[in-house]
Structures are given as C-alpha cells and as structure tokens.
Batch of 4 targets.
Target 1
Amino acid sequence: MNYINDYITSFLGYLKDNRGYSETTITTYKIALKQMVEISEIYEENGLLIIDIKKYRMAIFKQNKKTISKKLSAIRSLSQYLFQIDIKNRVIGDDSIKTSKTLPKPIQKNHIDEAIKQANLIEKTILYMLFGLGLRISELSNVKLSDIGSSWINIVGKGDKTRELPLVQNVKDVIENYILVYKPKYYLLEVENKKFGVYHIRTTLKELFKKIGIKATPHQLRHSFASEMLNNGARITDVKELLGHSSLETTQIYTKLTDQTKLKNYLSSHPLCKVSHEHN
C-alpha cells in the first residue's frame, strides 16, 4: 500500500508547517513510521484503513519503555491526523505501556497576562476558556450554547462524562461579549455556522502566543490552570473534579510541579541561599 507512505509524507509536512515541530522530532517520527510500515500489516477492510502493528511491537519489544512509548506516540499521532483528513482508520496493537510520568510544562502567568493584552475577542475567548476553566481542547471545540448557564457550564469530557464547572465572572463576561458580537447559533465557537475544530483552535492560540514571542499549546494552558489552582490553595480533590480526571493519581502530577515551584521560591528567598549567591 504505497499510499500509506504518501499519508506519512503529508503528516510530517503538517507537523513541520502547522504544528511547528523541530527537525529532530520530525526525523524521529519519520524513522519510527518507516519501520512501522516495513513490518506491520496495513490493509483496507469495510472502508476502514487497518494498521496492524502487532508484528512491529514484537520487533521493538526489547527496546526501553520510553523509546517504545515515543514510537507508539508517533503512530497514534499519524492515526489522529488521518482522521482529520477524513481517512477512517484503526490501529491494532497500540496498547499503552507504563512509563515514568514527566512533569507537565505550564505557561508562566506573566506570559498569559501579556497574551491577554494582545488578544482579539476570539483569541481572548479561547484563552479564557482553556486557562479559566482548565478545558481540554476537544472539550472547548464541543461546547454548545445550550451548555452555558448563568453561573455554570456543562462540559462533556472523556468517555462522554459530563462535569459542571462554575463560571467565574470574568470568564462569563468574555463569553457574553463574544456571543453578543459574533452571534453563534449552536456551538460557542463557530466559523461559517460550523464549530471551530481542534486544529482551528490550536492554530489560533499558536498565533496569539507568537505575538509575544513564545510557543504555547492549548494543553499547557490546562496545566497552568491546575498549577495555579493548587499554588493558591485549592484542594487536590476539587482540582481533580474540575479537570475531569478519573484518577487522583493523574492530578497528583501537578502537586509535584507545585512542590518544585515552592522549592524554587524558597531557595530564591532563603537568607543563606542569598548569601551563597552573593559570594558566588
């Protein structure tokens, strides 16, 4: 199936031109996907592109877990891209393996404040929804006008689970202003009577933060929301519910991040550390 190679070439171009991936990352993806195509069984069945990577998994099983995880991530990203370009597909044998969790990288609050100053109304609405409510990008894309109440908003998350989030006044004001100006009909974020897709939201946010000279992703804003909440005394169980996490273990990653922030602040203000720094 030669066209799978055409899909991969298109995908790698998308990562470079639209997602801003580095040449190193793109090369890593290219190598992993080339190996996958050579070993895996790829065929069509009932209008579905099947990518069976079980043999590929067997070939790489002796590699370390992080390497395997990165290769599987490349394959999953390709699968998601294919869906974006209307190529229905199914990956067989991509079961996750457990790897040590790395800390998320939130955007610094001063960068977010600067972005807000630079934002137009659409950008500001996206920014407030992601940072002000801690939404996943897919959740924001699917917010309907009927989900928005006077004080609460209903969010449909992973597994179609619905959670109710409180609307703080400044987020509510931005939403009301946006609706007044753009008059969406069904979804909160619409363009030409169709909802903003994930790609559209991601690109809009990318361009906003580009104005202030930094790279940022929607998911980093979700990380920022969680970190700010915990740093300001919110209970971890409450943050878990706000984020829509099914497990407290997932939310606890952010406590490690806030501990690092507290340690950094402690070391920067500790008198002995100051003395040591001055002597250096």
Target 2
Amino acid sequence: MTEVDTPRGAPIQRDVVRVWGPDALTFLQGQLSQDVDALGVHTSSWTFVLQPQGKVDAWARITRTAADEVLLDIDDGWGQALHDRLKRFLIRTKAELEVLDWPAVAVRGTGAPRGDVPDGVLRLAPPGGTVTGYDLLGPGAELPAEVEPMTAAQLRAHDVEHGVPAMGRELTEATIPAEIGDWIVDESVSFTKGCFVGQELTARIDSRGGNVPRHLRAIVLDAPVEEGTPVECDGPAATVTTAAVSDRHGPIALAFLGRAVLEGAEVTVGGVPGVVRVLPIS
C-alpha cells in the first residue's frame, strides 16, 4: 500500500504506564510477549499482555527509557486497566507502576518531517505494519508546524485502511493475536525470549502457520454503516467492529470474518452491499 507523501497529523489520546525499579525488566519479561531485555535504552517496540489462554488483555507500545525503567503507552481509556492487570502479578518484586497523563500527536506520511523534538518528547514508530510517519509522546508534544492537520475521524479511517486494531473494538478479551494478522504477531511477540503469560497457545498457533477460524478483514461499502451492524456472509456470525469513511475508498469497515471468506467476496452489512478486502487495503 502506497502512503501519500504529504504529511498529515492530529492530536491523539494515549494512556501511559510507567514501570521502574531494580526488578522492573525482570518482572515485565515474564508478563509481556515482547523481549524486554533485548530493548536498548531509547528504543521501542510493540507488545501484548495476554491471558493464560493466549487471548488479549492489552496491546501497547513499550519504550525503554533507562536501564531500569520502561513506558507502556496504550489506547486512551485503557491505561488504568493495564496498570491494574500488571499490578496483580507484582508480588515481592522491587518495581513500581504509575499512570501518566501525557499529550501525544500522530504524524502520518512518508514526508513526515524529522526535525528536532522538544526535550522530554519521544518520537516513536507508529502502530501498524504498513503505516509510515511517527507518534510524538510526552510533555510538550504538539503537531509540527509544517504538518497538515487532519481530524480524528480521518486518522481513524487511515488506521482502518492499514488494519490497525483498537482496544475495545478489534482487541478484546475474546481476541487471539493471530486473528489480527501475521504482522502484529511478528512485531509484538518474541518466541525466543523464554516463558511469558499466554505463550503456550500463541506459540502453538504460530507453529501451525497462524491458522485460526477467523481473520480481521476490511469491507469496502456502498454507504456508511454503524459499528455493531451484523455482516451477512458465509461462516460464523460477524459484526462491524469499526466503521469509517476513507478519503481514498469511501465507507469502510473492519470485521472478523471466517477464514473461508476471501478477498473479493460480496457481503451485506445491514442491507448495504460491500466487498471484502484483505488488509491493508491497497
């Protein structure tokens, strides 16, 4: 998928959980799917926090800010839940957790400016295997002057085009990481780091080529639909998890569809005709 060169951006809401202390990395190494020990200071990656059954509690970006400190930033409204989930396993461990309220900005496009950022602001890789640009996170984060503003709706449509999942929509306690796509497992899971919560099922599915009963797909529609609208198609019952209107494709939606529903299949969403597309939408 080719990204437009003109950089565009918008303020975004990201909750931040700070974890620090002598045992912080050791603790997180057993809780997160990412190899925390392998992260260098001032580098970041993506990680799942999983249930023992391998389903999703959280998907967050992890940034190592010091030898014994990391930041986990997650979709707005999910920081406290992430904090509480980690806190439950913090037993006889020399580590502390706190939730921070930091501003953030999303800048998208291959032409995104790469100038200096203010002290205390992090420039981080964006979510999504095919998304270009970056996020700015931290006190003082603001949209660069040379970046064209975009609305929150335009940014979410951009994310839908690229198959970027959202907590509480595509990512719920019923979601298995492989259902989102191979890219998110590749970016967020280490199969060489050793044990972590949810590892067994995740590794088993990966060894079978990511073969799961349903996959996240895009639907390009003839008219807008609402989230939660049923999708009439072959296979298991499905509903729209996210709906948007794209500048490039018009009305689009995300839904988990049975693996028998292939690229180009015709479906109906609340009476509206649509065509299934594999993500990202080209």
Target 3
Amino acid sequence: MGLSKNFGSLQALKDLTLNVDTPQCIGILGPNGAGKTTLLKIITNILKPSEGKILVNGINVNQNPTKALEKIGALVEQPEFYPYLTGRDTMKFVARIKGMSVSESSDEIEKLGRITGITGYLDRKTGEYSRGMKQRLGLAVSMIGDPEIIILDEPTFGLDPRGMKEMRDILIALKEEKRRIILFSTHLISEAREVCDRVIIVDKGEIKFNEEISGMRGNKMRIRGDFNHVAKITGAKEITSKGNEITVEMNPGATRNSILRELMESGVEIDSVEGMDRMEEVYLSLVQ
C-alpha cells in the first residue's frame, strides 16, 4: 500500500498500491527495469520499502515477517542451491524449517516432485541440474507447506521453448485449482495472456494498467494463408491484408468458425489462425 522504493536518486517504485484478496493468477507485466522484481522482493521482505507497507492477511511484513510470510512461497530471481545436496535433501531441509515432520515432508516431496516433474531427479545432486531443472526445483520448494500465496519472479526466464511450455503448463494447472493466489512477473505478453487471470502492467515503478484478461478479449483474428482471390467475408466488419496474412475484425454475432468455414469453402488454404486481444495494443500504448 503506497509503496515507494528509492536506490539513491533512482526511484524504482512510485506510490504503488495493489490489493489481492481472492485466489487467482496475476501477471506483473513490464519491460526490464520496470520495478517488477523490486516489488516482489519487498513483498517477500528481501528489500525494505522507502515508504508504504505490505500487509499479508492484515499482518505487516516489515513488523512481523515470520508471521506474515508463513503462508507465502516464493521463487525470486534465478534459484541456486547447495550443489552437494540432492533435490530431495534440499526439500527436506526447507520442510524441516517449516516445521513439518519426517513423514509429512516425505509425502510432500513425492507429491511436489510429481507436480513439477522432478521425481526422477530428486536423488541427484543439484550441482548436476540444468537451469530448467533448478527452476522446477525452485518452484517445488516454494510450494512446500501448501502456501496460500505463491510468488514467482520470471519463472520461465532462461528456459528453452520446451522448458517454457512445461513451466507454463504447471502454472496453469496450479491456477485451475483455484485454491491460492499466484503472483508472477514476466516481460512476455504471450506468457501473461496464456497463464493469467489478471494482468498488471508496470513501467517506471508505477502501475499503468490493472485488468482481468477476460475484459481484454478482442474481436479480431490474424489468418495466414493464400488470399489472392479473397475480396469479401460475410461477418467481417473490416479486413486488412499484408502479403499472405489478413487481419479480420468480426461483426457482432459473427464467430471465428463461421469465417474460417467461409474462407475454406471459397478455396483458401489456411496455414495458421491466431486470436487477437487488446493486450499488445494496451501494453505498447502505456510502456515507453
């Protein structure tokens, strides 16, 4: 609430206020240097705010961090672990800190290993882990104790395309349980669109936009194919073309399927179809 953070003459956050009170997945979207990581570090008490405060279930993080953060799991920046410990040993250590018994922690480790896809790597030393496997282990560690809030700082950063997709699939599965708040930062519009219920755009330390994804659904789609002889499409309000690609703005009541069916019946060979929303347009208009 009213968060500001200064690093000397640089103001990283400027009077930023954010309220979250229901289970959902929220993406903090912004360019590098926007203040995303600084915000997450303040929420998790890694950094202290210059002004303002963070309340978790009404408890001030600065005044009582142990109590405030007991229901929070976090993965902030690139995770690193003791390289001589196995993934299982690392998770046992964290579970013990959180007060879990040996039997409870054993069951928890197996469950989280399955969820994050690291079961086959739990008994390997973390020094042998790839970057993607460290990200998975970091996510598993953040979920020990079934926290009400999970905070993730660019969880797909540095992963290859397969690793990015697998991490997103894990996040989507967690979101669909509708049991917890997931707050994660990203600089990828496509990632926010795919994973989140709500998007917050941050730039230069300020919240520029805060809206549910469902409110950003558009009535446009981008179609790639052979459009040499397409002049008109029933149900299309406007058609713009560029090479082998057209963008169709649909009339109210028109559907994507009806337009695609009409194109195919007219002999058009369609290569790909991409739904469009307002997110990219909004982002580019707000982020300088």
Target 4
Amino acid sequence: MKPPAHPSIEELLDASFLILDKPRGPSTHEVTAYIRKLLGVKKVGQMGTLDPQASGVLVIGIGKAVRLLRFVDMREKVYVGVLRTRQAPQNIDGLQAVFNRCLGQITQTPPKQSAVAKRPRQRKVYEFRALELVSNTALFTARVEAGTYIRVLCTEVGKAFGEGKMIELRRTSVGSFSESRCRRLPDLTDAAWEWKEHGDATALQQMLVPAQELLTLPCLRIAGEAAEALGRGSPLAISDVAGAEALEKGEWVQIAGEQGRLLAMAQVEGGKLRPRVVLGAK
C-alpha cells in the first residue's frame, strides 16, 4: 500500500494540523484567531488551552481537522515550571516530599482563570519532581493526565510553606508530540507571506501536518462507489470493506481513499461502518 503523496497547500488548508510553540503573552484564543486570519481559513481550533503567560506545545486543527482533534492522542502532558513559596523549603528533599503527596489520582477544581465549569474533577499526576531550589523559588517538572491544572498543583504545594504560586510554565510535550516538533509563530507568518506574495507554498506545506499523520486509529482504504457513498455520509457494510471484519462494535477507524487521503472517521455499529466525521470524497 503506497503512502499518500504530500498534499497540496489547498488540501492542507482544507484539513491539517499545526504543532505550534505558543509564545508567552497572547491568549490561546488570540493565537488561533491570528492563525485563522493569516491562513484565510474559516475554522481553526485547539485542545489544551494554555494561559497567556504560559508557552509551549499547542496542537492546532485547521479547517475540517478541527473536528478531528478529539481523535489525536493527547492523554498525557509534560510541563516545566517555576514555583515560588512564601517560606523557603529547608531543602529540595523536603520540597519533593510535599510534591509526592500530589502523585496518583487527585481531585481538582479548575482555577478562576479557567473558562470551564468550576466543578471538582479527578485527574492523575504521574510525575511531579523538583529539579532545582534556590531560596523560595523552585524549578519543577510534571507529567500529568490531560486536564490537570498545574497552577492548582502549585497552590496545593504552597500550603505547606505558608503560600505558593506558579510564576512560570512551559508545556514541553502533548502525547507523543514534543517541543522539538513545534513551529514558531514568526516562522509561520513568514511562510504564509511567501505563499501569498510569491506563490511559493513550500515552507508552509512543510509546517502543516496532513490530518492522517497525527491519528493512530486503524486505517482502511476504499475506492470508487464506496468512496463516493461515504462522502455523502452513507454507511458502508463491513463485508464490503477489506479488513473491516476484524473491527469490534463501537470501534473507531480512519477511512482513506485510493490515494491515501483521509475521507472520514467512522464507527462500527450494526454491521456497518457509519461515518461520524466526513471530510469529503477524494
């Protein structure tokens, strides 16, 4: 099975992802609004809001790929940050002992800065480690379940030292996507300018990731009338799609066309592959 050729700029703007290094300063909403205007597309979205003063990995969906963000594996996130306490811990081991109390399954209420409902919810903290300590200021790293608020963790730690707050934060990875894969906003701006002013989309194409490259679900290929029917939102009989017999009820799968382009995300139900997110027949 041949891999798909790299999509054209038009195909990428229709449905692709961007792994961005969000800078400190602008809000996540301001960043996505800027990219939407810069690229001239109708939809740009993300999963995993960062505070304005936080930086780091932000996975962005462009065009139809906004509807695919929920299928991207972002279950774990890693951060580095700076915590400042009112009273200085005696030593880094003492600080680590307090960090250790936050490991495992915890209950958090989103901070007032968050836009989500302020209801207690459970999340998992896999690693919370003090890296350096100078007086009352500590450098730390945390590996957590998506949806964990590092600001709240820092506040909890601070209670053992009179008070504490997070003063700096950077997200270094989301799922399998590390900061080494990130694109900088100024570079994206330059690439978009080169495309608009000189018709050269090479740099921009290298920055935008074809939708199917970030998805890890099983992928089946179809062609001809089946692809046309799927593009109209019609379900396909499992018996008519090679490889579908091994799928279990409720399982999600990618459906690609003959050339390898992603056509839809489908779910097994009632002996059929029912398209839930349709990108189009190609």
